[in-house]
Amino acid sequence: MLDGWSELGIAFALLLIFEGIMPFLNPSSWRRTLRTIIEFDDKTLRILGFSSMIVGLVLLYWIH
Asked: What angle do CA 8, 47, 25 make, to 5 degrees?
């Protein structure tokens, strides 16, 4: 059975893998997306971040 640190390491490794897929497969689209995100105001970024956390929590609850 995995301890907490091993699971955290696995989660971090998966995060890096998934985050690297887009720039690897389509770097020009990834660059355009980043340019668009840079233009968002702080409120919009906070809402997107909060929404992402809620979706992640719901997914985690559903899976676990």
From this structure: 60
Q: How far apart are CA 52 and CA 60, in angstroms?
A: 12
Instruction: Give residue for tokens 């971040």.
Output: 49
pTM value is: 0.69
Residue pLDDT, tens place only, 32-44: 999 999 999 999 9
Rounded Cα distance, 41 and 56, in Å: 23
Nearest to residue 30, comparing CAs of 21, 18, 39?
21
